[in-house]
Amino acid sequence: MKRLLNSTVAVLLLSGTAYANDSVLAETAKPEQWAIQTGDYANQRYSELDQINRDNVADLRVAWTFSTGVLRGHEGSPLVIGDIMYVHTPFPNNVFALDLANDGKILWRYEPQQDPEVIAVMCCDTVNRGLAYADGMVLLSQADTTVVALDAKSGEVKWSTKIGDPAIGETLTATVMPVKDKVMVGVSGGEYGVRGRMTALNLADGTVAWKAYSTGPDEDMLVDPEKTTHLGKPIGKDSSLNSWEGDQWKIGGGTLWGWFSYDPDLNLIYYGTGNPSTWNPSQRPGDNRWSMTIMARDADTGMAKWFYQMTPHDEWDFDGVNENILTDQEVDGQMRKLLTHFDRNGFAYTLDRESGELLVAEKFDPAVNWATHVEMDPNSDQYGRPQVVAEYSTAQNGEDENTTGICPAALGTKDQQPASYSPKTQTFYVPTNHVCMDYEPFRVAYTAGQPYVGATLSMYPAPNSHGGMGNFIAWDNIEGKIKWSLPEQFSVWSGALATAGDVVFYGTLEGYLKAVDADTGEELYRFKTPSGIIGNVMTYVHGGKQYIGVLSGVGGWAGIGLAAGLTNPNEGLGAVGGYAALSDYTELGGQLTVFELPGEASAAAEPAAEPAPAEGGTSG
């Protein structure tokens, strides 16, 4: 089954209509390649390749490896365009072009010279979520807020644009997304009082085309008070300003460090905004709009069509930046253009992506307890709002009071690690955190470039459960139900990949690459890589043979204790104590591991005559 938008791609390329960047549409339409981090504009992370399938995946073996030479956390994945693979690293954000036709020979390196002082203002490890490709250029976001376009063949810098200021806590950790003649880029730094925004750069030369802030005056946010809607109603004049006390919106967070999606037919880009600043809710009364919000914007102008705020007046650091996965599915007998979002707050949302209508909002981990439910009655004054449980409300309990047993923890039921979707099974495959916390807010003063958190946290596994800190689940976004769930010892911090071979891949913090049956969740294969996996699994074809690739290199928020050498349990915004046992299972070190089936390409295309048992592929 073709992934979403591929039928549209063919029409657009034939007609020459520039609904989206032609090179991106062309390259993502080739299943043998991996041209942008999300796999396609719909963010499905689904591959039509089926040479590796449920019948032969147990025979996978390591084909080759590549050391990045960098420690710290390796998020994102490589890209493959033609015969070249592009590999990125965390800070210092090196890029390697590898010749797949010549044993992975390094064709060129890009090694940016950045001020190492930027590391001090990177909240949760020095991660980078990967490269993008468009118009013969490889696009990189650097930690120091510089966006660079590199010639894909030579590595020559075509243009370079700085979009922020690390001196006030602004950094870049997310990938960029090329759309039409522009490049979309967010900014990180919500824990430093950064004011979040989306910046669109002109692809040709890197100049700024438009900029849309998450908070503040209407003109800064690129909204029309009468036409931009929230749950079907106009947001009204000064919708953001009216929801903050004084000028708190100027240091109000709402940063963009997750993933972007794009619908060429609607010409809308979709993304989520992060937590409000500070983490102490008493210092920012009101709904704090438009932090914690899914936004739909016109790709040409940046003008907002609709918003949906998932967690008004966030009291727990439940960022809303996670990916928005676009699907066309039947709802009540009618085909709908849908958007599915697995939020940090523990609720999975299904919306109509054209109108912003809320269709489903259900917990995707039964342990979630901070809210009973999201009100779904359009006639209620609480419509679309989570119904907060007073016992777990850090705002109601007040400053300097330790609110205990909140589920999920601040890193959410799912952080940025992206889910995948299979059109064959119409199922979402979701890496999750099964973690709770204690949270004590305190008064904090803002100083530019200094942490602006205002809370002390401790994290631990959800009580009265399987004892682990993660699950890998299959989710029905129409019914809002878990289909199956696999418990994991630690949070699943790797991005998933679903394939037409009826296999779903993901990685674990201990370092295992796992393959499971897309229908049942049965484990079919596992292999332990040299370090914990927080990278995203990808696939490609070269020489007629399908390969699976994943970056290992433990780190990120869950692995920050190992990555940064922290030992105080409350450090790492509470994660160090929660994941202290991780050091018993893995160690630092960045490596790309590529897997294949035995034999030549022609033989690899055939399923194994007698598949090995699930344990047969295990190593380590």
- The CATH H-level superfamily is Quinoprotein alcohol dehydrogenase-like superfamily
- The total tally of domains equals 1
CATH hierarchy, class: Mainly Beta
Low-pLDDT stretches are: 1-19, 607-620
- Record field, number of beta strands: 40
Class based on secondary structure composition and strand pairing: mainly beta
CATH architecture, by name, is 8 Propeller
Largest β sheet strand count, sense and barrel closure: 6 strands, mixed
Mean pLDDT: 93
How are the strands of the biggest sheet laid out side by side? 16-15-20-19-18-17
Structure explained in plain terms:
By secondary structure, this protein is mainly beta. It has a single domain (22-596), classed as Methanol Dehydrogenase, Chain A (8 Propeller). The chain has seven helices and 40 strands. The strands form ten sheets. The protein has a six-stranded mixed beta sheet, with no helix packed on it. Mean pLDDT is 93; it is low at 1-19 and 607-620.
Descriptors for this entry?
EC 1.1.2.7, PQQ, 6-stranded mixed beta sheet, calcium, metal-binding, 5-stranded mixed beta sheet, disordered C terminus, disulfide bond, Methanol Dehydrogenase, Chain A, globular, single chain
Give the SSE layout.
Layout (H helix, E strand, L loop, with lengths): L5 H10 L6 H7 L17 E2 L13 E7 L11 E3 L2 E5 L6 E5 L5 E6 L21 E3 L2 E5 L4 E6 L5 E6 L14 E3 L2 E4 L11 E6 L5 E6 L4 H4 L7 E2 L2 E2 L26 E3 L4 E5 L20 E6 L5 E6 L14 E8 L2 E9 L4 E6 L5 E6 L7 E4 L11 E3 L5 H4 L5 E4 L13 E3 L4 E7 L1 E7 L13 E7 L8 E7 L4 E8 L8 E3 L3 E5 L4 E6 L5 E6 L9 E5 L2 E8 L7 H5 L10 H4 L12 E6 L4 H4 L16
